[in-house]
Every structure is written in C-alpha cells, then in structure tokens.
C-alpha cells in the first residue's frame, strides 16, 4: 500500500481544462507567485523604510508533450487566441499531481487561463529524440488546493 503521508513524486500528473482531464505530458512547469513590495517612508518617520504590498504577479504554466495525432485540443485552444478570441479562450486550468495509485493529490488551479505561445517541434533527420510540442499558458491567479 502506498505511503499517502509521504511527499508526492513529480513524475505523475495531469492537466485539467474546465473539468476535462488530459494526461500524456513529458513536462509541466508550475509557475511562481509573488507580491512585489513598495518601499515607502514619510519624512517625519524613523529612518526605516516601510514595506507595503503591491500587485500580485504570476509566472506562466508551461506544458510539453510528444507529438501524436490523437488530440488536437490544445492546438485548437491556441488557435482561438491566434484568431483574436481571447475572451472565448479563457479557461479554468489545473495541474494535478497523482499519488502512486494514480489518484488525484496536490492540485494547482489557475484562473482565466489562455495559451500565450505555441511552439511546434524542431525536426532533424539525424536526430533520434521525440518530437515535442509546447504550450505556454498565462493566467490571472493561482491557488494551491488539497
């Protein structure tokens, strides 16, 4: 029986877009989140700068997967943005880590996400690597669940 109290492994995960799960990614990068400080001081205060919070900033989600003919869903999602339909392309996205039995575990959810960049594979007749597509997804906030 797997140890449910130990840390999750980083090699079993899936992507969920508006409730539809898709697996088969060779890599998924979960971005950083930060809040920039604003330094502020008034002239009648002690000579120490106060730190006020500013805007929250979130990095992009990056996905990489081997090219197949099975699914064009992520590329079609990108084409909405390419056609200028960003509002139509906005989705709720989650990256979910799976436990050793394949059950959902840790989850990162992203609001109002849409693909910012699609990258087709580089091809070479002398190479023997898997052809990899990638998609970079922007969003307006993330939340860690479970």
Q: Show unreliable segments.
A: none
Radius of gyration: 20 Å
| Helix proportion range | under 10%
Average the pLDDT over all residues and give the rounded result: 90
Amino-to-carboxy terminus distance: 21 Å
Q: CATH topology, what is it called? A: Pnp Oxidase, Chain A
CATH class: Mainly Beta
CATH superfamily descriptor: Hcp1-like
How many individual domains? 1
Number of strands: 10
Q: What is the CATH-assigned architecture?
A: Roll
Folded structure, characterized:
With 146 residues, this protein is mainly beta. It has a single domain (13-32, 59-145), classed as Hcp1-like (Pnp Oxidase, Chain A, Roll), CATH 2.30.110.20. Helix content is 10%, strand content 47%. The protein is built from two helices and ten strands, in the order ββββββααββββ. The strands form two sheets. Strands 1, 2, 3, 6, 7, 8, 9 and 10 form an eight-stranded antiparallel beta sheet that branches. The protein has a two-stranded antiparallel ribbon with strand order 4-5. A hairpin with a 2-residue loop joins β1 and β2. The chain is globular, with a radius of gyration of 20 Å.
Provide key terms for this protein.
Pnp Oxidase, Chain A; single chain; 8-stranded antiparallel β-sheet; 10 strands
């Amino acid at each position: 029986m797997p140890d449910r109290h130990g840390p999750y492994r980083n090699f079993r995960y899936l992507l969920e877009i508006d409730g539809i799960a898709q697996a088969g990614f060779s890599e998924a990068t979960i971005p950083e989140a930060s809040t920039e400080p604003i330094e502020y001081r008034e002239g009648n205060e002690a000579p120490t700068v106060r730190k006020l919070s500013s805007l929250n900033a979130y990095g992009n989600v990056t996905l990489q997967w081997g090219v197949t003919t099975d699914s064009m869903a992520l590329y079609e999602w990108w084409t909405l943005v390419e056609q200028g339909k960003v509002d139509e392309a906005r989705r709720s996205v989650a990256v979910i880590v799976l436990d050793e039995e394949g059950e959902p575990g840790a989850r990162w959810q992203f609001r109002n996400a849409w693909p910012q960049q699609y990258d087709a594979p580089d091809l070479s007749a002398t190479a023997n690597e898997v052809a990899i597509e990638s998609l970079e997804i922007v969003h307006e906030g993330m939340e860690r669940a479970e």
